Amino acid sequence: MPKLRTVALVAGAALLTRRALRRRVRVSPLWPLPALDPPLSGRPRSRALRLQLTSHETIADGVVQLRLDGRDLPRWEPGAHLDLVLPSGLVRQYSLCGDPEDGSSYTVATRLVEDGRGGSREVHEQLTEGMELEVRGPRNRFPLVEAPAYVFVAGGIGITPVLAMLRALPEGAEWRLLYGGRTRASMPFLEEVRKLAGDRLTVVAEDTDGRPDLDALFAATAEGTAVYVCGPEGLTEAVEARLPAGATLHLERFAPRASAGGDTGFSLELRRSGRTLTVPAGSTVLAAVRRELPDTAYSCEQGFCGTCQQRVLEGEVDHRDELLTDAERGDSMLICVSRARGDHLVLDM
């Protein structure tokens, strides 16, 4: 009996040891080496929803509005946007411009970009009512803050996040809006904006009025005024150049921000893969990486969706995205738009 007991104890210990080893190997396949942190690329930044496209309506020259219906949808606040996953697999970001209290639908609008990368054309020409589409979000990197006064500057389709903000302003708030576009017929929601703003609105159409007078807009700006601008790069740069002292600026861009220092080439080390690459001036980290690692995940190539996020091990990053938080920028980057600030960068790839 003592021998049987000893055999049983040894067998039990061996079984427990095997189970422990299996668990350890699952945690770290290279055990006994330390476990590697999981890569960041491709992690969903929010849960995906499947919604039905119930309305696809032209609301201005070159602009369509989409209504996406579902149930118990996540709440959102003015300034938030959705990632819309198109049937082709392209991912595009659109500001929410409906009613934040409506838990059964999301509303977005998009302008057709004739010489764009294909996303807006797919939205305009291939999406039809009744289709089911995947969306991610909402996310908000352009929130409406409390302020003693507001100045809003919207260019074209940039009115979409601003429209939701105007509806949410408390009664009695002090604010002004400059809304510009190529022609009045191309400016979505113009009549609704007129009703909301009254004499606080200045409309500037390039074909009849020329360029907006930003100096006049900012002539009587009070200390602490929050200035919100959403529009093309030329408009955002003009507002930045004329921002009054004491005002705070809140921007949402249509494209990745440019670096004040321009683009220069640098070396890129992929630590996990043991490879060192060169990222030339005028190209992207993503392009260089995909030549070596063609399965690297990416999507929007605009710094908005987060699919290409990678962990940074060494080097200073020139962040040009519109998505990552300050905490995330401490140790990661979106390789589709951001670059090295120096001559060398090391990624956990």
Provide structural commentary.
It is a single chain. By secondary structure, the protein is α/β, with parallel strands linked by helices. It contains nine helices and 18 strands. Strand 3 and strand 4 form a beta hairpin. The protein is globular, with a radius of gyration of 25 Å. About 4% of the residues have low confidence.
Question: What is the typical, i.e. mean, pLDDT?
Answer: 86
The structural class is: alpha/beta
Strand content: 25-35%
Strands ordered across the widest β-sheet: 4-3-6-1-2-5
Largest sheet: 6 strands, antiparallel
Count the strands?
18
Helix content: 10-25%
The helix-strand sequence is HEEEEEHEEHEHEHHEHEEEHEEHEEE
Low-confidence stretches: 24-36
Overall body shape: globular
Distance between the termini: 57 Å
Radius of gyration: 25 Å
Number of helices, where a helix is a run of at least 4 consecutive DSSP H or I residues: 9
Provide the fold topology:
Layout: H1 2-27, E1 48-60, E2 63-69, E3 81-85, E4 91-95, E5 105-111, H2 119-125, E6 132-139, E7 150-155, H3 159-168, E8 175-181, H4 190-197, E9 201-205, H5 206-209, H6 214-217, E10 226-231, H7 233-242, E11 248-253, E12 266-270, E13 275-279, H8 285-292, E14 309-314, E15 317-318, H9 326-329, E16 332-334, E17 339-340, E18 344-347
Parallel strand pairs: 7-8, 7-10, 8-9, 10-11, 12-18
Antiparallel strand pairs: 1-2, 1-6, 2-5, 3-4, 3-6, 12-13, 14-16, 14-18, 15-17
Structural key phrases:
alpha/beta, 29% strand
Quick description:
This protein has 349 residues and is an alpha/beta fold. It is built from nine helices and 18 strands.
